[in-house]
Each structure stands twice: as structure tokens, then as C-alpha cells.
Amino acid sequence: MALKGEYYHLFAMSQCGPDAFIILKESTDWDLDKEAYPMTSWDHLSSHFMNPTYIDLLFYLKGVPILGRYAKNALFNHLSYVYDASLNYVSAHEAVESIAESFPFEEDILRVILTEASENRAMAESYVYDYLNVTFPEINKSIQMKKAAYNILNREKEYLEETVHQGQLDEKEFKLLKKIVDSHTYALGETNEPWVNEALS
What values do phi and psi take at 80, rounded to 5? Predict the structure, then answer.
């Protein structure tokens, strides 16, 4: 349940996309439904996007006239989704593992849970850092830049909320400024950097 809460927090802070959020929640349910067995949430999660045949097909089609543009977009979107799910899986596990000592479990049970969680996180880290980052560095750069931009926009929204609660900003001004920030947030989600598309050429 702690992992679900962390996934929701990442989603609420625009650090996790809706598709990744759904599959991450499902991976948690997978482990909860099979609590009598060792944790295998990473295997369950990765089975949804480890499809070399699909990626190879998109790489082939991106060089085909007319279809190429659609294949590039599909490739970028698929890899972004994979990155999103994988990075947030790692991030959430790190956050929960750091506070696990406070959970009301017996010491031996907690040790088993932490060991299994750490093993799953290690597999995810290996996939991200040893495969994705090496094979698709431009995609990783794009996602990290977007995450940083989302952080700035989220901080702006927090500042607006603090200001209106303190009476330094009236409701009309607050709604107008928040609408501007929300429009920037939406536009950011629709943006694919040109140099990423060039890298996939």
C-alpha cells in the first residue's frame, strides 16, 4: 500500500504519466494478490513493455516514406512510457525502502520484504541504466528535462496557492495565473523536442 501511495504522489506531482501510473498500480496489486510468493512486480511490469519485435518494427518503419513520421512518434511515445514506468518504479521503491523500518512488521518479515524489494529495484535499475540510458540517451535527456520543467511548474502552483491563502492575491488573479500555469503544463506534455526526433532519424 505504501508503494501505491508513492505512485499516486508522483502522479499528482506530474512526475508520472497516467499510463505509467496505471501499470505501476497494477504491478503493486500483482504482488499483493500473490503475497504468499516472492515479490515479482518488476517481472510483471516489464512484461508489458519488453517487446523487441515491436521496437524493431518501428525502427524499420521510421525509414519508410509517409509511415516514417508516425513510426517515429510511436517509437518516442513507447520509449517515453517505458522510461516513465521504469524510473518511477525505481524512485517509489527507494522512497518506501527508506522508511520501511517504521512499518509495523516483525523484524524477520521486514527483512524478507526489503530483500525482495531491493532485488526487484536492482533489476529495474539495471534495465534503465545499463540498457535504456545506453541505447536511447536522447530519450532519457528529454524525459529528465520534462521532469525538471514539471517541478518548476508545480512549485509555481504551490506558490500561487500559498499566496492566495495568505491574502496577498485575490481569487480572480489566482484563477487567471493558475490557468496560465496549467496551460504551460498541458503544452509541456504535448511537446516532443525536435532534436529527439532527429536522433530517431
Answer: -65, -40
Last residue of a domain, which of 120, 135, 150? 135
Contact 34, 40 (CB under 8 A): yes
Instruction: State the Cα–Cα distance between residues 93 and 96, nearest whole angstrom.
Output: 5
For residue range 68-127, what is the model confidence (pLDDT) as tens digits? 888 888 888 888 889 889 999 999 999 988 887 778 778 888 888 889 989 999 999 999
DSSP assigned state of 36: T
**pLDDT grade, residue 195 (50/70/90)?**
very low
Helices (H) and strands (E) in the chain, counts: 10, 0
Angle between helices 2-12 and 67-99 (to 10 degrees): 130
Residues 54 and 74 in one domain: yes
Range of the domain at 82: 1-135
pTM of the predicted protein model: 0.75
In angstroms, rounded to a whole number, what is the distance separating the alpha carbons of residues 96 and 5? 9
Tell whether the model's pLDDT for residue 186 goes beyond 50.
Answer: yes
